[in-house]
Specification:
It contains twelve helices and seven strands. By secondary structure, it is an alpha/beta fold. The protein has one domain. Strands 1, 2, 3, 4, 5, 6 and 7 form a seven-stranded mixed β-sheet that branches.
Length: 292
């Protein structure tokens, strides 16, 4: 899949792959990617719009992250799991696309911990173990809508720029030494893929926008509520990392319920009863081909 086309990676679209059988929940690779150190003094960042003749920073950062994950052999190019992910991801991508200026693309990555994360430029990464954790289609749809919302809100880009506090003159000096500004920002992001540490406000906003997207895509937005409740009931060792540094689940559940009440014309037709959800099942020990 090229950066210019949206959707979900599908089997047969990548000529350079390696195939191997992988039992679920066995750690074969870690997300702790080594971040290159760049000696740059902290300063207030000033962001200017890039000329239209050049790719914007979000697209470049997203491509840099993709290249790093590909080099590490993390990205799943082909798996029967895509048959379950693709219809949901495609529907959500179509719904969200008018709100973002780059195509949304969804990739599976192999990791023992259930997780999902989005990066600037439109890429959304879903761990294969998350597909085994969710109990129904609505829970997975809620997760994807939440992550897409972070991209729409430019949350990860804002976070890394804030934390790195890169001033234009320091960035310019670094470029002379080799890396581009986008590469420097991508390095900062790669080291934080497991724990982006969004603020309570950013997480709550992504929940609410995610609920709106789910409703527009005709997926029951109560799925995100059910997912939070499942997290609370789960063994702590199995709680997805995507929630470990986030605001309390109960706070988020109450905020979502209030959102549903305040916008009853949009959400009133969806059932709050989890027994009405569509079961989500995936094949066990699916053969996996990694992107090389």
């Amino acid at each position: 899949m090229s950066p210019e086309t949206g959707g979900v990676w599908r089997p047969g679209r990548t000529p350079h792959c390696q195939s191997r059988e992988i039992p679920m929940f066995r750690t074969t690779s870690r997300w702790w990617l080594t971040a290159l150190s760049v000696a740059i003094a902290p300063a207030v960042v000033v962001i200017h719009a890039a000329p239209k003749s050049q790719p914007d920073d979000e697209l470049q950062v997203g491509q840099e992250v993709f290249n790093e994950l590909k080099a590490k052999g993390e990205i799943v190019a082909s798996s029967p799991l895509y048959d379950s992910l693709t219809p949901i991801a495609d529907a959500i991508g179509r719904t969200a696309q008018p709100l973002y200026n780059h195509p949304f693309k969804f990739y599976l990555v192999h990791e023992q911990q259930p997780n999902a994360f989005s990066v600037p430029g439109g890429n959304v990464y879903v761990t294969d173990s998350l597909l085994y954790f969710v109990k129904n289609t609505e829970e997975l749809a809620g997760t994807l809508c939440h992550e897409v919302s972070h991209t729409i809100h430019h949350d990860s880009m804002s976070l890394i720029e804030k934390e790195r506090r890169l001033e234009r003159r320091e960035i310019g000096a670094a470029v002379l030494l080799g890396p581009t500004r986008a590469h420097i920002l991508a390095i900062a992001l790669i080291g934080k893929l497991h724990s982006l540490g969004y603020s309570r406000e950013a997480e709550s906003a992504a929940d609410l926008t995610g609920a709106d997207l789910c409703a527009d895509a005709r997926y029951n937005p109560w799925g995100l509520v059910w997912l939070f409740q499942d997290f609370d009931a789960a063994d702590t060792a199995q709680v997805p990392q995507l929630l470990s540094d986030h605001p309390s689940n109960q706070h988020r559940v109450e905020a979502l319920k209030q959102h549903f009440r305040e916008h009853s014309p949009t959400f009133g037709s969806f059932s709050a009863d989890a027994s009405s959800a569509k079961p989500f099942t995936v094949p066990k020990d699916a053969a996996t081909v990694f992107l090389r």
